[in-house]
Specification:
By secondary structure, the chain is mainly alpha-helical. It has 21 helices and four strands.
């Protein structure tokens, strides 16, 4: 659906909004802005009055700030966060991130756009809004940069469920903005390319320097994207590891130390300190219209599950030390425990993993388009493999399912799978004759990958290698780069036998259950490999 044209907010409406905001009546201000945006949606091509970046930045802070969510005292304050989310989603959907100037609204001090946009300094909405949530208390000021906020958000997905409920919405919003902003950059570049092609067709048009201009135009277009500003401020090559640590934040002590709370004491629960009761405030309009603090009758204890303000959330189960539990007597206690349970909760559950995948997909897109300015794709592949290779099986399976990265080109996917297989396969396997990135002839996969087991006898490693081969074969088949031949079937069968044989009799008592589950994964994947060959 095409976006509507954007119109600035009128000074009269801005004055009303500023008055609400200065009185901290955020819900009223946001609802006024929401109504204003909605008024132009009826006619598909009509311009939409769009809130300025300062208001959108405030809305994004209200969405996640503890004072308007977890720590909100008046019950009406909770409505402000919901109104903020509705406004941001609506503006994103009908105006788009470029016309709405999300790059200005969603900018951290370290990633401010280098080019200033000319505005009328006398306009009311260009003046700073006089509340803390628009300044020092905003998410854009409290977080060091985007990746600090991302790392803390994913830490919350494991440690603070009540905070994760809010950060999840914020990360979803940011992922939507990053995706669509990048898509608009792609369209702008494609349109510019079409214009240059038309110029080439004009007689007597000089052709020199067109390639250089194309490269410069591409760099200029994509360098103005929101994600590139978030990346370029972190000295990309030196800090790509930090970016990936943020995306893979796991709630560990090291992760929390690096990606600490964004807001002061935001993880503290109201009403659970020193057994004190939480006072509820309401507006008493019957007595002179003043705000009155009125304790509710029959106020319940904070542990009362019926009160939504006092819901208790289950705490994350701590990893037990060796010897503290009879079920955790394995030598490699942490990995054995994670692999044994192998559920997606290790990284915060389905929603958390889905958002991590989306952020990774954006990184891969940037690396493909701006490898010199960011990081070469093959280098990003190695950093990604380093992070994913030793994850529990089911999480590993989710991260290598490259259908989650729809904008990731087939050639780039092939290169990534090759890096995974190089790290997993046994050392006696030969290297492909053609080492070109993104290129893998059928003869090479038959000779160098399919017939071999993993380097270790661990059943999970062999199952990981098997599902990698399965994914690689499906990808090659989808690109018409794989055909059913006797050598292909022989290589597949040889690999299935080699992996089964290598993992036999490797289970000990501590890992017996894990070994049995791993054998099931391995056999299922072997069956799928044979099925793929039969269906080619």
């Amino acid at each position: 659906m095409p976006y509507h044209p954007s119109l600035p907010l009128s000074p009269e409406l801005a004055t009303h909004c500023n008055a609400f905001i200065e009185e901290k009546l955020y819900t009223q201000a946001l609802n006024l802005l929401l109504s204003t945006v909605q008024s132009g949606i009826i006619i598909p091509t009509s311009p939409i009055i769009t809130p300025p970046p300062s208001y959108l930045a405030l809305a994004a802070t209200i969405l996640v700030h503890p004072s308007t969510t977890a720590h909100a005292l008046p019950l009406s304050d909770n409505e402000a966060a919901s109104a903020a989310l509705r406004l941001l989603r609506l503006v994103h959907a009908v105006v788009g991130p470029r016309a709405a100037q999300f790059s200005l609204a969603f900018s951290f001090p370290i990633s401010k756009p280098p080019v200033k946009i000319a505005v009328n300094d006398s306009s009311p909405w260009t003046k700073p809004l006089g509340v803390d949530l628009c300044g020092s208390a905003s998410v854009w000021s409290r977080a060091e940069d985007f990746w600090h906020a991302v790392g803390w958000a994913f830490n919350c997905s494991l440690l603070h469920p009540e905070r994760w409920e809010r950060w999840l919405l914020w990360i979803e919003l940011m992922c939507d903005a990053l995706d669509n902003d990048w898509m608009q950059c792609t369209l702008e570049f494609a349109e510019a390319e079409q214009s240059r092609e038309k110029l080439r067709e004009v007689p007597n048009t000089p052709g020199t320097g067109l390639h250089g201009k194309k490269v410069n135009k591409r760099n200029e277009t994509f360098s103005n994207s929101i994600i590139f500003r978030y990346i370029s401020t972190t000295a990309a090559r030196a800090n790509i590891r930090r970016i990936l640590r943020a995306i893979f934040a796991d709630g560990s002590e090291a992760s929390v130390r690096e990606f600490r709370e964004v807001f002061h004491q935001e993880s503290r629960r109201i009403g659970h300190c020193s057994g004190s009761r939480k006072r509820e405030y309401r507006v008493n309009l019957d007595q002179s219209g003043f705000y009155d603090s009125v304790p509710e009758r029959g106020m319940r204890e904070p542990s009362d599950a019926a009160d939504p303000g006092h819901l208790r959330f289950p705490k994350r189960a701590k990893l037990r030390m060796v010897g503290s539990d009879s079920s955790c007597e394995a030598t490699d206690e942490r990995m054995a425990s994670l692999n044994h349970h192998s559920d997606l909760a290790v990284l915060g559950g389905h929603k958390s993993i889905s958002l991590r995948l989306r952020l990774l997909g954006v990184l891969f897109m940037v690396s493909e388009q701006l490898s010199q300015e960011f990081i070469p794709l093959e280098e990003l592949d190695y950093h990604f493999v380093e992070r994913v290779l030793h994850l529990p099986f089911l999480i590993f399976q989710a991260f290598i399912n490259l259908r989650e990265y729809p904008k990731f080109s087939p050639m780039a996917r092939i290169s990534l799978y090759k890096v995974f297989l190089y790290q997993l396969r046994e050392s006696r396997a030969p290297d492909p004759e053609n080492g070109e990135e993104g290129h893998l002839p059928q003869a090479d996969i038959e000779r160098c990958f399919l017939p071999f087991a993993a380097a270790t006898a661990d059943v999970v490693d062999n199952a990981k290698m098997s599902i990698l081969l399965e994914s690689l074969m499906l990808l090659l088949a989808g690109q018409d780069m794989l055909t059913s031949t006797p050598p292909l079937k022989e290589a597949v069968q040889a690999g299935i036998i080699a992996r089964e044989k290598k993992t036999q009799n490797q289970a000990d008592r501590a890992h017996e259950d894990l070994h049995s589950v791993g054998q099931c994964w391995l056999r299922e994947s072997g069956t799928k490999l044979l099925l793929i060959v039969d269906l080619l």
